Amino acid sequence: MILIALGITDTGQVIFLDWQVSESENCSSWLSLFRALISRGMKTPEVIVSDDTSSIEKAIHFAFGEGVKHQLCLWHVSQDMKRHLRNRQYWNIRHFMRDFWQVFDTLSKEELERRAIQFIKFWQEKEADAIKVFLSKKKKLIIYFDYDIKWRHRLRTTNLAEGFFKHLKTFIRRYPGWVDEAQIDITLGLYLLGMNAYRHNKNNLENPVSIKNVNFNRLY
């Protein structure tokens, strides 16, 4: 398993910060990744966006304390709610998911709260277990509203990470398997260096770079 950390600059550029090769997505693995970032000079982040797992929540607490805001990915929570639906018929699942996303389809926090009340009222008796999940996580679903509109689409889901892994999977299809963790590190490093070269060359056609000339020290 590969755990990754992405960041966003004040200009909106997405930065790959670091990765951690791990046998499982547990607290110690996430904590190791966070501590590696801290040792390299990263300051305490203002907000961390992730899926809803107790392992990463504990790691955030141990690494950064209570001052960090933790926004849960709306998509991952929606899937958790879907698993708690009593009525598994297609039309009911589709109706519930549509109503869930409509709660957040607004630029106003006041309007979101109004829609959330309607959502809860309509589904409370029909799907009590799913609504219980919604109520238990609601505070961590709306943290992105504390930020400027231009950042909100970046902060309400883990789509950046999902997109990264989508492209990475395409890249690693050429490999039949893994030899050891060192090969995983090198392969991922090669992918990242290639992506950086692609981004540079796309905007600098007259001064292209080659990954043959980059520094591989990060991999060892």
Summarize the structure.
This protein has 220 residues and is mainly α. 55% of the residues lie in helices and 10% in strands.
Question: In words, what does this structure look like?
Answer:
The structure is a single chain. With 220 residues, this protein is mostly helical. The protein has helices at 27-39, 54-64, 74-83, 90-104, 109-123, 128-141, 149-155, 159-172, 181-203, and strands at 2-8, 14-21, 47-50, 69-72. It has a two-stranded antiparallel sheet with strand order 1-2. A two-stranded parallel ribbon has the order 3-4. Helix 2 (54-64) links the parallel strand 3 (47-50) and strand 4 (69-72). The mean pLDDT is 86.
Topology diagram in text:
Elements: E1 2-8, E2 14-21, H1 27-39, E3 47-50, H2 54-64, E4 69-72, H3 74-83, H4 90-104, H5 109-123, H6 128-141, H7 149-155, H8 159-172, H9 181-203
Parallel strand pairs: 3-4
Antiparallel strand pairs: 1-2
Helix pairs in contact: 1-2, 3-6, 4-5
Report the uncertain regions.
none
Shape: globular
Tell me the helix content. 55-70%
Indicate the mean pLDDT.
Answer: 86
Order of helices and strands: EEHEHEHHHHHHH
**Numbering strands along the chain, what is their spatial order in the largest sheet?**
1-2
Descriptors for this entry?
two-stranded parallel sheet; 220 residues; mainly alpha; two-stranded antiparallel sheet
